[in-house]
UniProtKB/TrEMBL annotation, chain A:
This is NADH-quinone oxidoreductase subunit L. The lineage of its organism: Bacteria, Pseudomonadati, Bacteroidota, Sphingobacteriia, Sphingobacteriales. The keyword Nucleus does not apply. InterPro entries: NADH_UbQ_OxRdtase_chlpt_su5_C, NADHpl_OxRdtase_5_subgr, ND/Mrp_TM, NU5C-like, Proton_antipo_N. Residues 67-117 form the NADH-Ubiquinone oxidoreductase (complex I) chain 5 N-terminal domain. It is found in: Endomembrane system; Membrane. It catalyses: a plastoquinone + NADPH + (n+1) H(+)(in) = a plastoquinol + NADP(+) + n H(+)(out); a plastoquinone + NADH + (n+1) H(+)(in) = a plastoquinol + NAD(+) + n H(+)(out). GO terms for cellular component: endomembrane system; membrane. It is a multi-pass membrane protein. It comes from Solitalea longa. Belongs to the complex I subunit 5 family. GO terms for biological process: ATP synthesis coupled electron transport; electron transport coupled proton transport. Pfam families: Proton_antipo_C (PF01010), Proton_antipo_M (PF00361), Proton_antipo_N (PF00662). It comes from the Bacteria. Keywords: Membrane, NAD, NADP, Plastoquinone, Quinone, Translocase, Transmembrane, Transmembrane helix.
From TrEMBL, chain B:
Signal peptide: none annotated. Its main location: membrane. The keyword Isomerase does not apply. InterPro entries: NADH_Q_OxRdtase_chainM/4 (IPR010227), NADH_UbQ_OxRdtase (IPR003918), ND/Mrp_TM (IPR001750). Belongs to the complex I subunit 4 family. It is found in: Endomembrane system; Membrane. This is NADH-quinone oxidoreductase subunit M. GO terms for molecular function: NADH dehydrogenase (ubiquinone) activity; NADH dehydrogenase activity; ubiquinone binding. One of its GO terms (biological process) is ATP synthesis coupled electron transport. It comes from the Bacteria. The keyword Transmembrane helix applies. Keywords: Membrane, Transmembrane, Transmembrane helix. The chain crosses the membrane at residues 6-24, 31-48, 76-102, 114-133, 139-156, 168-189, 213-234, 246-266, 278-296, 308-327, 339-357, 378-400, 412-431, 459-478.
Length: 634, 514
């Protein structure tokens, strides 16, 4: 079945893109929404079928056609559908479908409705290509393609210059990462003579560690860009300029996890390079904490979620770096559920508030938006890591592996989790508890969102609550279904890692670790409750004086300003400098100089042509004498 | 004989367009269109006929050949020949020629007959350049394509057309003279060693040329072709010529004329001077990398839309030099694909700039903005080709640049890594262009701006289909080009194999090709 129908999975959204893209003028809204959602639903159904097929019969490679074949380089346009891919397919099409449905409500009154669905479908197409490809080049197509869609959707309301700027920033910053990826591909080819997974991974152990380290670090640069890790993360918070469902789909649930997918896919290469593993873990951990600290003081509801995404992605990289491949991937999955839910919930709030995103203007929305309130509570509990919500299991798995590598890493990770619980509940309480702080007009306008928006919220809430049960740790007498399912993908790496150093944690240690982190999280939530519900503290206005760390956090550690001063402006000046000095003055100066020399000399020589016979005779005589003199002398 | 017919059709079409235009002005563009269309159809037929005859393993010489003595005492023959490389480039020539004629349809209002004469003659010259296999004849066509182009810029250009056309003429002419000098020296040296005088490519190729002068001859050719390309620091004629030329002029300049430089490198410099090419390759690679970065850096400082696009060409042509002087099959395939895809995408961007100028009467991007809201089709097409220009996958340019970089990386990892920074810069200039032209608020005085009409839509649809096709299914081109590329590289490969220790890269130790 998979062989015959799998190609339809990406092609259906592509058809949707073509219908909505070419017919953007004529298609009625109903048709646009129907085409947009139905194509993704179709892919979802196929993905389910594929999932069961893979589960029963194992991984499959599907060759579509020979794309590029030059000399020894063969790049087939073919798909590899294994366990990892099939889960990604389910996440992308499943969450994607819900967000498409939600969008029919959220974007209903937008003039660019058709364009929006066209872009969204195109995004799904590229994202599917990314995970389906059987070699790095196909992955790269999807990789750049989703970057393009992200650019278009961030700049969806391009009339506002700052939105267009945010889009530009995202595109360029992603490109920086992509460059690392690309050079990584070049090196893969020169090392292994192929770019296909099936050729590279079995040979991985033949390459030297230095080469593997270089390759994996280059690939990781790509992952840093796409998955918004330090130092290439600043585009993601700005990306919130796009419509909220886009933030949910692209900038939380799917595209930003492409980096994790890439490393998980190349797990064997990473495992063979301890330095790269350490770098991945280090960058992940640093990002997790750094972004969490910034999230503490943000007042824009979407900004909080954006930094939270950066931070959670950091956890996933930490997981990869400590060898918890399944755990990292588990977190990709649960994060897709609860972060999509939180973003969509935020969208519902913003929708009700008439576009307002500042939490200082909100408050007391619980009674106006009961469904949104309840579903968001589920999402917040899940991300905070309260058992038995989904986030608890996945985060716990990552932290447990981190403890195996180093208790310090575990402690820092738990510290980040406490921050997460605090800022998430800060957001939650500021939005839903206390008194309404907005204008009278906004108050009047408050309403629960239509069913097209609340149903996806409910579905995602259910997934956020129960989604963790596919990976209950052994210590809690569960069976780790996900781990079993993914074992063919990560099996070899796990063996290598186990052989190297890792001992298994005893159940007692695991209980203690879980207990400690849950206790910490509960205290953190209680603290947020005291501050924002009991004392009803409202964050200070923009201009209020802030001090020390708070000021730095509020201003996002001035990273944007630093990048501007160090990269953007010098590059502009360099461009101007080269143009004025090198092109215009030096090169053109020489060229025009030749022109002027010719004119000048022509002007001088012209004077010889006087027209007087006497002058000519004189010159002739001089000439003859000179010739004679030369003849005699030499 | 078909090869001769191609040139005859175009040349006589041009003359006919000129003469008939005096009786009925509109007739001239139709004649130009028809003669270009006929050539395109003939070439298309040839492609399909010859495609199956390509032997992927062995180079079997020319696919078609025509040779008659021309000036016997001097050893000049009228020798035209066709292989996969020239056939592919001819297809591009007529395809873009068609686009150039169509986009001039309304733009050119004065002296139409003479304009179309020039346009068709430039195409004839380019056709000749791609077919001539006698160096004298090659030089002849090289001049034929230059002079009508000079007229196109100087008569139908915009404000600074006189300066620009002079500059264009002098740069090309000076470098052309260098080439003539090189050709004549080569001619005499060959006569000296072999005992007979000939300009014929095949014969020059078979004789092993060992002379103290051969390095200078190679450099002569190299400079002539890289000025045309253009390579830093010979590039300053290009932004002026492009920005002042009428749209069709820019299309032909960027889409085709630059490619003749690249063609020259592949056809003449590599096979005729294999050792010398290796000797100069370090310089060439360095200049190539500088061009890539320098052109891209310049592009994002420009405010004149056409000048901006012109600088992107400098950057993209740098990739060609990088690829050619890597002496590697992958890279060279990429080079030819780059010639094709850059031709298509830059032509599209220039045509778009032309449409914008027709509507807004300016090329200044600071006076544009928000045009997507008024003309979404134009915006989408602009986006597509801006993305093509920065090498987004699925579009042809990606494949070209990917192959060049991949091929070059095997031998020169450092140069290639530096060169690929150009991909970041290209992203910057592409999105900046999009933002300045199409995004942002609509400016008040543009409210009457209208989207594509059906003629414009046709041109853009053709170009779009072409660029997507190459991106998704490049294999036919790769197959068609393979014999030519293998034979261009044959000597380099031999030299490299014989003294592999000197030239092969340090990275060699980690290459285990299967």
């Amino acid at each position: 079945m998979t062989e015959q129908l799998a190609w339809l999975i990406p092609v259906l959204p592509l058809i949707g893109f073509l219908i909505n893209g070419l017919g953007y003028k004529k298609n009625p809204k109903g048709l646009v929404g129907l085409v947009g959602c139905a194509t993704v639903l179709g892919s979802f159904i196929l993905s389910i079928l594929v999932f069961f097929d893979i589960k029963a019969n194992g991984a499959k490679t599907i060759d579509l056609y020979e794309w590029i074949s030059v000399g020894t380089l063969k790049i087939p346009f073919s798909f590899l559908i294994d366990q990892l891919t099939s889960i990604m397919l389910l996440i992308i099409t499943g969450v994607g479908f819900l967000i498409h449905v939600y969008s029919t409500g959220y974007m209903h009154d937008d003039e660019g409705y058709g364009k929006y669905f066209a872009y969204l479908n195109l995004f799904v197409f590229f994202m599917l290509l990314l995970v389906l490809g059987s070699n790095y080049v196909i992955m790269f197509i999807g990789w750049e393609g989703v970057g393009l869609c992200s650019y278009l959707l961030i700049g969806f309301w391009f009339k506002k210059t700052e939105y267009a700027n945010a889009a530009k920033k995202a595109f360029v910053m992603n490109r920086i990462g992509d460059l690392g990826f690309l050079i990584g591909i070049f090196m893969l080819f020169s090392t292994f003579g192929s770019i296909s997974y099936a050729d590279i991974f079995p040979q991985a152990q033949t390459a030297s560690t230095a080469v593997l380290t270089t390759i994996t670090l280059l690939l990781f640069v790509g992952a840093m860009g796409k998955s918004a890790q330090l130092p290439l993360y600043t585009w993601l918070p700005d990306a919130m300029a796009g419509p909220t469902p886009v933030s949910a789909l692209i900038h939380a649930a799917t595209m930003v996890t492409a980096g994790i997918y890439m490393i998980a896919r190349s797990n064997i290469l990473y495992v063979l390079s301890p330095i790269s593993m350490a770098v991945v873990a280090g960058i992940g951990l640093a990002t997790a904490i750094f972004a969490a600290v910034i999230a503490l003081t943000q007042n824009d509801i979407k900004k909080v979620l954006a930094y939270s995404t950066v931070s959670q992605l950091g956890y996933m990289f930490l997981g990869l770096g400590v060898g918890a491949f399944t755990g990292a991937f588990f977190h990709v999955m649960t994060h897709a559920f609860f972060k999509a839910l939180l973003f969509l919930g935020a969208g519902s709030v913003i929708h009700a508030m008439g576009g307002e995103q500042d939490m200082r203007q909100m408050g007391g929305l619980k009674k106006h938006l009961p469904i949104t309130w309840f579903t968001m509570l589920m999402g917040t509990l899940a991300i905070a890591g309260i058992p038995p919500f989904s986030g608890f299991f996945s985060k716990d798995e990552i932290l447990a592996h981190a403890f195996e590598v180093s208790p310090t890493i575990w402690a820092i990770g738990v510290g980040g989790a406490l921050l997460t619980a605090f800022y998430m509940f800060r957001m939650f309480f500021l939005t839903f508890n206390g008194k309404f702080r907005g204008t009278e007009e906004q108050h009047h306008h408050l309403h629960e969102s239509p069913a097209s928006m609340t149903i996806p919220l409910i579905v995602l809430a259910v997934l956020s609550v129960f989604g963790g049960f596919v990976g209950v740790p052994e210590a809690l007498h569960g069976s780790h279904l996900l781990n079993e399912y993914l074992s063919p993908v990560f099996g070899q790496s796990t063996q290598i890692l186990n052989a190297a150093h890792h001992g298994h944690l005893s159940h007692e240690t695991e209980y203690a670790l879980m207990g400690a982190s849950v206790l910490g999280v509960l205290i953190s939530i209680f603290y947020a409750y005291t501050v924002y519900v009991r004392k009803e503290v409202v964050p200070a206005a923009e201009t209020a004086p802030r001090s020390g760390l708070e000021k730095a956090s509020y201003n996002k550690f001035y990273i944007d300003e630093i990048y501007n001063a160090v990269f953007t402006r010098p590059l502009d000046s360099l461009s101007q400098l080269f143009y004025r000095i090198l092109d215009k003055s030096i090169i053109d100066g020489v060229v025009n100089g030749f022109g002027q020399l010719t004119q000048w000399s022509a002007d001088k020589f012209r004077r010889i042509q006087t027209g007087y016979i006497g002058n000519y005779l004189f010159m002739m005589v001089v000439g003859i004498i000179l010739i004679l003199v030369f003849n005699f002398l030499f | 004989m078909i090869l001769v017919w191609l040139i005859i059709i175009l040349m006589s079409g041009g003359i006919l367009a000129w003469i008939c235009g005096y009786f009925l002005t509109h007739l001239s563009k139709w004649i130009a269109l028809v003669s270009c269309l006929i050539s395109l159809i003939i070439t298309g037929r040839l492609w399909f006929d010859l495609y199956n005859r390509i032997d992927l393993q062995n180079q079997t010489g020319w696919l078609m050949e025509f040779s008659v003595p021309w000036i016997k005492p001097l050893g000049i023959t009228f020798h035209l020949a066709l292989d996969g490389l020239s056939l592919t480039l001819l297809l591009l020539t007529f395809f873009l020629g068609l686009a150039a004629i169509l986009c001039s349809w309304r733009e050119i209002t004065s002296k139409q007959p003479f304009f179309y004469f020039n346009l068709v003659w430039v195409l004839a010259g380019i056709t000749g350049v791609f077919l001539a296999m006698d160096l004298f004849l090659f030089y002849f066509f090289w001049e034929v394509m230059l002079i009508p182009m000079y007229f196109m810029i100087s008569i139908w250009g915009s404000e600074r057309r006189i300066y620009s056309s002079y500059k264009f003429f002098l740069f090309t002419q000076a470098s052309g003279l260098l080439m003539l000098l090189a050709i004549i020296t080569l001619y005499f040296i060959h006569a000296h060693t072999s005992g007979y005088y000939t300009f014929d490519y095949d014969q020059l190729l078979t004789s092993s040329l060992k002379s103290n002068y051969s390095l200078f001859i190679a450099i002569g050719f190299f400079i002539a072709f890289t000025v045309k390309l253009p390579l830093f620091p010979f590039h300053t004629w290009l932004p002026d010529a492009h920005s002042e030329a009428p749209t069709a002029g820019s299309v032909i300049l960027a889409g085709l004329m630059l490619k003749t430089g690249a063609y020259g490198l592949i056809r003449f410099v590599l096979p005729l001077f294999p050792t010398e090419a290796i000797q100069i390759s370090d310089w060439a690679l360095m200049l190539g990398v500088i061009s890539i970065l320098y052109g891209a850096l310049q592009a994002f400082g420009q405010t004149d839309l056409k000048r901006l696009i012109a600088y992107t060409s400098v950057s993209h042509m740098g990739f060609i030099v990088l690829g050619v002087f890597s002496f590697n099959e992958l890279a060279l395939q990429g080079v030819v694909l780059q010639m094709i895809t850059h031709g298509i995408s830059t032509a599209a961007l220039f045509i778009l700039a032309g449409f914008l100028k027709e509507r807004l009467h300016t090329r200044d991007i600071n006076q544009m903005g928000g045009l997507w809201s008024l003309a979404p089709q134009m915006g989408s097409i602009g986006l597509l080709f801006a993305m093509a220009s920065c090498g987004l996958p699925v579009l042809g340019n990606f494949i070209a640049e990917f192959l060049i970089l991949l091929g070059a990386f095997q031998l020169h990892p450092v140069y290639t890594s530096i060169a690929s920074i150009g991909l970041i810069l290209s992203a910057i200039y592409s999105v900046r262009m999009m933002q300045k032209v199409f995004f942002g608020e609509v400016q008040n005085d543009h409210v009457t701006f209208h989207d594509f009409n059906s003629r414009e839509k046709t041109i853009m649809a053709l170009l779009t289909i072409a660029i997507v096709f190459v991106g998704l299914y490049p294999q036919p081109f790769i197959n068609m080009l393979q014999p030519s590329i293998k034979s261009s590289l044959k000597l380099q490969t031999e030299i490299k194999n014989s003294n592999s220790n000197e030239i092969s890269p340090q990275k060699g130790s980690i290459i285990h090709h299967k």
